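Lab notebook, page 48
Experiment: co-folding of the full assembly
Goal: obtain a model of how the components sit together before planning crosslinking
Operator: M.T.
Materials (sequences as entered):
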Amino acid sequence: MKHQGLLMLVLWALSGLTALPAQAHRPSDAYLSLRVDDTRLHGQWEIALRDLPALVDLDADRNRELTWGELSAAQSALAAVLQAHLALRADGRPCPLTIGDLLVHSRVDGRYAWFALEADCVRAPAILEIDYRLLFDMDPTHRGILVLTAGATSHSAVLGPQAEPRRFDLARPSAWRAFLDYTVEGVRHIWIGYDHILFLLALLLPAVLRYERGRWSAVDRLRPALWNVFGVVTAFTLAHSVTLTLAALEWVRLPIAWVELAIALSVLLAALNNLRPVVLRARWMVAFGFGLIHGFGFASVLGELGLPEGARLIALVAFNVGVEVGQMAIVLVAVPAAYALRRTRFYQVSLRIGGSVAVALLALLWIAQRGGWVQ
Amino acid sequence: MVGALAAGLGATGFAQAAPYRPADPAEVLERLPVSAAPRSLQGRRLSADQAAELARVFIERGRSSGDPRELGYAQGVLAPWWSAADAPDRVLLLRATLRQARHDFDGALADLARLLARRPEDAQAWLTQATVLRVLGRYDEARRSCAELQGRTEPFIAALCAAAVQGLHGEATQASAALEALAPALSGQSPGVAAWYYAERAELAERLGQRVVAERWYRQALIRVPDDHGLRAAYADLLLDDRRAPEVLALIDADVTAEALMLRRALALQALGDPQFAALDLRIRDNFDAARRRGEPLHLREEARYALARGETALALTLARQNWAVQHEPWDARLLLVAAMAAGQPQAASTVRDWLRATGLQDARLTHAGGAP
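Observation: model returned without errors.
Model output:
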């Protein structure tokens, strides 16, 4: 026996691959995501299926294969274990935890059990304490990978077997800080939300052109072009500000799937209008009409971020300001370039036709995806 | 506009699959390990000897399954003694092994020193200490540890330990002769020890530039322990150096799960321009990301090597430097030399060149990499 132990250590030393040479699995990591929403916390907890046998007896038929039937049969036993190993406290007062739905999540490294979490605190936490104890008594190398989101800020941490619970300072950021954070989010959203940009650019593209008797030509002076741009941008801004506010304050609600589909449709129509104009002078009205829809789209992003308690109005205004700033930055780059290029064949033919066709095709793809016709 | 289009279309490709509710209760979600975690042990008080025996079983199981959880369970049963400086002998040895596996080399050496002060007759501890010192490139001390094995274990193992370190420590030719002289004693050895012997011969031959001979020894070793990941990885490295990527694919098949082997397979696929590379690349990078999220960079060597292969020279140099700060094996030296050259900063590897001069390490692979004296 002694000799065998020696061999084990020898083999470990082979070929210089000393660091966990045969590692064929990840170490035990669980993913805990929590979002603070006033006095409620919600999120999810994902635990590798390989870790579950350490928590409860799962494999009822002892064939060493875990089926969905076996996993769902163990749901309440697992929920009880999870509940016993995670404690949340808002400013020292416990937030009772509810373990909800059980789903399966395929990650790159294998499957995880996905549990929905909810916790109710007596008050909105300024200091949130997280006492995470899952698996540590058996596997001290287990880690909880935490992402905690409160308003526009997020904290991440690796939860290990230390004695003290982890404390997160969620004290509401100053109004100025909230304003800044939400402005940045607004800018970010307009820049990564291609559908909004493409809609706006498609409407602005003919602003430096004139359409008469079936022919396009460049405008001679800057003035009419600027009026065109001003009309479109102002109408779009006014419209989406109105609906963003209505939706963010939850005075009006629309199904998000419907909104996303309508946004894609607006991009398609704006692009087609550049190929065969139906609306010319009144493009600002199109910008206003569809701008109302885009506002609901912005609101859904803001809904995901959540409005910070006590700074709702500031955050809402800041997000809107961010959207406008991001939008103006794009306009200030696109319009001078368009004006400079307006007489070229590239602008009048390649970009107007080719660009609009490309945008229209992309919009069609979005429509198909958002309508659920293609994956 | 085209850029935005491409980005818009590209963005859809990265969407992570959402959690789902399987429709069929009979759907198999996971294959479970042989026996589960030590749940049944909870609440039971174990003696140090019982705990050490269980820990040894978990470590062995971890070695064959490749699941680092087993090492975690081993640490778990040792928990009552884990932070005790003065733990019982058997616990110290296992704790050193677990610490070494997590790259806590200083912690491992401290445990071994404490154990050997108490029990100088413990051959396992001397051998483990030689191994750790070897990983750190401290060949003088490693030689002394091997010398302590004499008279405390089988002569074959003591001689093999000594010859292997001698081969790294500037006396490659003499070591080669010493290993050759051990050949007649090989017949009585277990497959594991025989594989160790052949692996040392292969590694030494490779360093001496005798690639054909090295290959023969790798094959001999693999006959004894066909599933050993470390050995297969070392053989795959020889094949990759020789630009024999198709043979790497034959050695390491597509359903490989061991990270070290996955990496070699990916390098071979990349060399061949094989479309399977993309999927494997995603998995490997996801593994590296997960280790970084955990805050345990145990894969610096592999990560540096991978960055180098993908042409990320600045990143490769950073990683190779961090890796060199942790361990000093010939491959670590090679990576820092190559990464420094690739990044156009040969002076970044000057510590490697100093170390090569000090140890007298001979390695044909390093000469190519710009490590020639």
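Interpretation: Residues 197 and 241 of chain B are 23 Å apart (CA to CA).
Next step: discuss with group before ordering constructs.
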